[in-house]
Amino acid sequence: MILGVCLLWTSTWAVTPPDEGMWLPIFVERLNYTDMQEMGLKLSADEIYSINNSSIKDAIVGLSSSASPSGYFCTGEIVSNQGLLFTNHHCGYDIIQQHSSVEYDYLKDGFWARSLEEELPNEALTASFLIRMDDVTDSIIPLLSDTMSEGARSSKVRELRSNLEESASEDGKYNVVVKSFFEGNEYYRFVYQVYTDVRLVGAPPSDIGKYGGDTDNWMWPRHTGDFSIFRVYCAPDGSPADYSEENVPLTPKYHLPVSIKGVEKDDFAMIWGYPGSTQRYMTSYGVKFSLNHFNPSIIDLLGKTLEIMKEDMDADREVDIMYASEYASLANSWKYLIGQSRGVKRLDVVDKKKKIEDEFTQWMNQNEERKEKYGEALNLIKKGYEQNEGTIKLMLYYNLGLMGPGIISYPQEFSQLEKQLEDIKENPEAPERTIALLKEGMVDHFKDYNPPTDQKLLAGLYAMFARDIPVEQQPEFFKEITNKYKGDYNKFAAEVFDKSIFANEDRLNEFLENPKAKKLQKDPAYILSGKVMEGLLASMGGYRGSQGDLNQGNRLFVAGLMEMNPDKVFYPDANSTMRLSYGSVEDYFPADAVHYDYVTHLYGVMEKEDPTNPEFIVPEKLKQLYETRDYGRYGKDGKLVTCFLTTNDITGGNSGSPVINGNGELIGLAFDGNWEAMSGDIAFEPELQRTICVDTRYVLFIIDKFAGATNLIDELTIIE
Ligand code: ARG
């Protein structure tokens, strides 16, 4: 598929409860520090964020697969003076999968480097450190005008942003990103140093790191040892460098000490990291749109995709490894959206939003000037979503359905080559480099590609398109397929796989040895891929058409809300920039008469054990340690804590984030949200919403007692 499915997570804004909010570290001293001190923070404001002295911010890392990222898939934290980094197992999962095979099955068995030499380099993994951030609103907003069209406005913003980025990059030394906040009412600039040599150091077996699997995912009580370990390397002079044998472990500006003292109810906890995206200022129109139009199609399409993949994965460990990472990520999004829709309904999110909109409208109608300024805000939003209602389903069915199978999406990578082959007379040299790159990419593509599974996806997803998209909306080429194969999509898929060079690595290699444009132009998968792409782009056109109205409407609405509540401190939605959230360790009541405690234990791992269910297998060694209660300094009173809960406000992208106590010590790694508050990205639920963390005592116990990786324990600064 081409577009990723992004994970999404309101609130009545009358009073912001203390634990709601993902705060920008530069404002913490002014906005939150006193509050945090009252709750138990012992550090000075300078010790948590400073641009001149080393501070906690210097231990917080954004993880990406790009060398100049504009966002981060997860967060990590530096825990030793040799660049050692902790993150979640599910954040390292894709990397661990890439290093795994049936022979070296690190997903199943875990991986532990006993020395620096054994650490595994990665082509596409980078660690970004924030050098500084600044408010650049005044360099953008005054240069825009209210009479500009939305299109002109966004191109002006783009130009100003790129100048501001350029001017702070010091000739490429830094990766600089300017981002929009509060729906385009404010702008901030972030300056990062990006390290591109990040190596895999350790990972527990999936039976620990992913214990409970997709069944327990997004849920409490939880017993997952969701951590993995990496190390950041640099050139001998300390500067960022691509992988080289000469590289050395990074000496970081700061690393977090690790506490194994344990957590108590009401303890202060702060979480730092890179939350990806929230929609806390989303209107009732947006919520209804997600609930009725956006979520259902994605849920159906992903559900089908997962079902097909799972069948083959369960039958063959090789296929299981090939699709492990993709499956986990799709299953995570799928369950997220199901939970979100359920939460939106149960927690009356649409009504909560309507109440805010009613207050806004009343306030606005009190004077002419306000009406003039904000009168159109909600209408624009309503109109934008109405327009999208007509186009979204088709677009999603193109994107995740017709474009879903690899045999349809992968040929897109060959379109440049086709053009170069056609123009070969004018430019005979051009294809050479493209071919070299394609050959390189092919190896990675086929490594995680099982043609029989993809053939089933092609048949299954195309049959679904035929069933769910009204015939009058189906493109001509699709109707032709239906006619030609008399609705037998299995037969259609079999023929594509029989004839296409993209179905098989040898055929594709042979093609690249002697590539001809004609060959591509006659290939059934290549032809189809082109038509699907054309249809997808056309379907997105309608969707994009509404963006201007939605952008303008949302910008005005949020500006209005801020003007309406001059004394309230607003926090910006998550946008993959560094944030801090603070709260405390707490239990909760998920339903009438049901109480969930704030910690889980190793004996709970044993209670869940089910040798017949691959999601609940307990490794033999862990059972032995449990039976002998051999917990060393990590246990207490014959018990070992595995996970705990806090009230912090986080979302996807915060995965791997450090949970830090009042003394600035690491007490856990945030790794999930809870089922009862899955609408939390759209409306924070103070009573119900919790962050699920793996306890550092469980992490260190696994490294030390389970894996015997004392080399790593020795590097840490442990607070007992
Ligand atoms: N729900 C977690 C998140 O979005 C990911 C957990 C991964 N585990 C899994 N079983 N797929 O950060």
Task: Map the helices and strands.
Layout: H1 28-31, H2 33-39, H3 45-48, E1 60-64, E2 74-78, E3 84-87, H4 89-98, H5 106-109, E4 111-112, E5 126-135, H6 150-168, E6 175-181, E7 186-195, E8 197-203, H7 206-209, H8 213-216, E9 228-234, E10 248-249, E11 258-259, E12 268-273, H9 284-315, H10 317-346, H11 349-364, H12 368-374, H13 377-389, H14 392-402, H15 406-409, H16 415-422, H17 431-447, H18 451-468, H19 476-484, H20 489-499, H21 505-513, H22 517-522, H23 524-545, H24 547-564, E13 579-584, E14 588-591, E15 594-596, E16 599-601, H25 602-608, H26 620-627, E17 641-646, E18 658-660, E19 666-673, E20 691-695, H27 696-706, H28 710-713, E21 718-719
The chain binds arginine (ARG).
The site of arginine has 12 residues, from α8 and α10.
Question: If you had to describe this structure to a student in words, what would you say it looks like?
Answer:
With 720 residues, the chain is of the alpha+beta class. The chain folds into 2 domains: 25-278 and 641-646 and 651-719, Thrombin, subunit H (Beta Barrel); 284-550, no CATH class. 44% of the residues lie in helices and 15% in strands. The protein is built from 28 helices and 21 strands. Strands 1, 2, 3, 4, 5, 6, 7, 8, 9 and 10 form a 10-stranded antiparallel sheet that branches. A hairpin with a 4-residue loop joins β6 and β7. α9 (284-315) runs antiparallel to α10 (317-346) and α9 packs antiparallel against α18 (451-468). The longest helix has 32 residues, at 284-315. The radius of gyration is 26 Å and the shape is globular. The chain starts with 27 loop residues before the first helix and ends with a strand. The structure holds arginine. Arginine binds next to α8 and α10. The site of arginine has 12 residues, from α8 and α10.
